[in-house]
Amino acid sequence: MLVAAAVLTACAAVGPNYERPAGAVANSQVANGPFLGAGNAAFDPEPVPGDWWRLYESATLDGLVQEALVANTDLRAAAGNIERALAGLDYADAAKNPTTTLLATTTYGRRSAEEELRPGKPLSNNFVYGLGAGVSYQVDLFGQIARTIESANADTGAARAAYDTTRVTVVSETTRAFLEVCSFGREIAVAERSVALQEKSTELTRTLFRTGRGSTLDVTRASAQTDQVRATLPVLNAQKRVALYRLAVLTGHAPEDFPRAVQSCDQEPHLARPIPVGDGAGLLRRRPDIRRSEYELHSATARIGVATADLYPKITLGASIGSVGLNKNFLDTDTLKFSLGPLISWQFPDRSRIQARIRAADADQQIAFARFDGTVLNALKEAESALETYARDLERRALLEAAREKASRAAEDTQQLFALGRQGFLPVLDATRTLTVVEQSVAAADSKLASDQVNVFLALGGGWEDSGRPR
To answer: Which of 299, 349, 385, 418 is exposed most, by the fewest CB atoms within 10 A?
Structure first.
């Protein structure tokens, strides 16, 4: 009874139980509070929806995202990592079960007379058989098996969080590629209008030259400016084609199989409402890389217990039964044997190697803790940076729009003055060039805002909830 009580008392997992460290950045008030830039009118304090891409109200975009979630190769690889982690968990869990062995042999031969302590009396040749069955069970007195399972379970959680991180990235990059295709289509349209405007101005200059009101220098300058604006088209077309190729690969297709329906898009969809951003506490719950980092910290903590358990003895309960003898005496009473009892093993007194493994496990836990804090800080930095960039780019876009209106009026006024003969052609050329540059700047600013929006959603970690990931 005393022995049983001692065993039951000892049945506790050694090593620290996991709790998020009290000093973790994720527990701080600053990390859980509102964002610094959330007071801007462009942002909504409501939580980020899981399917944030639907805020664009684009059936085409929604279809592309769903296709990417099914066929993207990075997601397929991440799903394979989950399966591997689950296999590791099953392997660790199997240690809780008894181990069974079966043996069946038959041999023909002769044993040594010296071995049998019968020197000078050679033994005869015989057929000998052997049958046996055994079962053993390791008593997890100090929780080494339990800690191993705990670590494997945390590794599985980390693999699932890694899948969710990949999903967030795939959704964001698919949305970004689609918006870029449409943005470059719009920029191409703006450039083509600018080229048409320049060609009209050049033709007017030629007409005035033919009527004696202009010079060859005016015609040359106007023609050169037309070529300069036209030179932006090849770059924009190349960027649009690259975005189409990226969109094809994201959705699991070869570059040449890019979605033809998207090719003609020349106006990206816009958000119909301010961006919902939530707060720091929501960010900590939502970012899967933070969840993955904490799972890794949990796993590292459990491995301290795995290493510590080697300081204590291991007890294995075993039983076996068998029969060994000559074939002619198969299963006779004299051939039967059995054993029953515990096996105790203990790495003692050489414990320095075990202590070294424990110190290494402690160091791994400290490294994982530092990475956890670093992941939280980086997530906060990315969120604040994305919000700040978007807010400032909105201000820039408003200023550029005001500049475009002024440049457009200036271009119209100089055209009228030139047509009336009240000024030369150079002011017309300068005003037209200014309008072209400003219009292209506005178009580029709109494209930057579309990319900024995706960066905000990516930094906030939206897009993995209810993902239907492998379990």
So the answer is: 349
Alpha carbons 458 and 396: distance in angstroms, whole number: 22
Q: Compute the half-sphere exposure of residue 427: CA atoms within 13 Å on the CB side of its CA.
A: 14
In angstroms, rounded to a whole number, what is the distance separating the alpha carbons of residues 142 and 375? 33
Greatest alpha-carbon span in the chain: 137
37: phi then psi, degrees, rounded to nearest 5? -95, 10
Task: Give the domains, in start order, of the chain with CATH numbers.
Answer: 11-98+143-312+353-460 (1.20.1600.10)
Best CA proximity match to 460, nearest among 295, 296, 288: 288
Degrees to nearest 5, angle at CA 371 with 368 and 377: 145
Q: 107 burial class (0-12, 13-18, 19+ CB within 10 angstroms)?
A: exposed
Residue whose token pair is 């707060």: 279
A 10 A CB-CB count for 411 gives: 22
Cα–Cα distance for residue pair 363/244, rounded to 1 Å: 47
Q: Is 318 exposed, middle or buried (0-12, 13-18, 19+ CB in 10 A)?
A: middle
Three-state SS sequence of 139-194: ECCCCHHHHHHHHHHHHHHHHHHHHHHHHHHHHHHHHHHHHHHHHHHHHHHHHHHH
pTM higher than 0.90: no
Looking up tokens 């693999």, which residue turns up? 159
293 class by beta-carbon count within 10 Å (0-12 exposed, 13-18 middle, 19+ buried): buried
Which pLDDT score is estimated for 7? 45
Whether 293 and 97 have beta carbons less than 8 Å apart is answered as no
User: What residues are paired with 322 via a beta bridge?
Assistant: 132, 337
Taking 50 as the pLDDT cut, the residues of the chain under it are 1-10, 467-468, 470-471
Tens of pLDDT, residue by residue over 405-433, are 998 898 888 878 877 777 766 677 778 77
Asked whether the beta carbons of 276 and 49 are under 8 A apart, the reply is yes
Helix or strand run (H / E) with residue 102: strand 99-109
